[in-house]
Design brief:
By secondary structure, this protein is mainly α. The chain contains eight helices and three strands, in the order H-E-E-H-H-H-H-H-H-H-E. Strands 2-1-3 form a three-stranded antiparallel β-sheet. Strand 1 and strand 2 form a beta hairpin.
């Protein structure tokens, strides 16, 4: 959970969250007292409570309205992608996350709820502990950093590419010179390139992975 998917740059981070992290489902969903396996990825499990937390969090901050079953399915798919990237990050030993960084991520999320009580009420409604939240947010941060190093550092957009985009979309920039919007165009094209490269990389990982989904997962956390 799981955007995703955004990296020194918020636009970039948002893309990653939407691709590999969280989507949405109402926060009234509760995990069952005895957790079950929603999916297994190379013998690592994604639990029902992890899926419930991901979909609830995304509904709260990402908006609702999509078909519920499709949304749950997409969320699980994103969590599978994230698990594959976590496994790669650990295998390649590219990045790490400190305890201080984990605490900062939890605090950042808590503040989005407006109060600590609202945050803890949200967690209690899902039977999710602060320790579980810390682990999941840590995994999200690990994925962000891994994708930035594995994909983002190698993506470049030339001035000619940006100029070509500017000319092809002249109506979007009416009355403005290329020099005024060049940085924005480069950021946009960089994000698009990262999206394509990340999708390709994830497809390669999935092709080699052993992925098993519990057929009873959808709608039954």
């Amino acid at each position: 959970m799981l955007n995703f998917l955004q990296f020194k740059n918020k636009q970039r981070a948002w893309y990653i969250f939407t691709v590999v992290l969280l989507l949405a489902v109402p926060c009234a969903v509760r995990a069952e007292p005895v957790d079950h396996i929603a999916a297994a990825v190379n013998n690592e499990v994604i639990t029902g409570s992890e899926l419930a937390f991901a979909v609830a969090l995304n509904t709260r901050f990402g908006g609702a309205g999509a078909d519920r079953k499709a949304l749950e399915s997409d969320t699980l798919d994103g969590l599978i992608n994230r698990r594959l990237l976590i496994q790669e990050a650990r295998r390649l030993k590219y990045v790490d996350v400190s305890d201080q960084e984990l605490a900062a991520e939890v605090e950042k999320l808590s503040k989005r709820f407006g109060s600590e009580k609202a945050f803890h009420d949200f967690l209690n409604g899902l039977d999710v502990t602060p320790q579980e939240v810390s682990r999941m947010l840590g995994e999200r941060l690990l994925v962000e950093r891994f994708v930035e190093k594995k994909v983002g550092l190698f993506v470049r957009v030339s001035r000619d590419e940006a100029q070509g985009w500017f000319e092809a979309h002249a109506s979007d920039y009416r009355g403005r010179r290329f020099s005024e919007v060049q940085k924005n165009i480069v950021a946009l094209l960089t994000e698009q390139k990262i999206a394509r490269e990340l999708a390709r990389y994830i497809a390669e990982l999935r092709a080699k992975a052993d992925i098993r989904i519990n057929p009873q997962t959808n709608g039954h956390y």
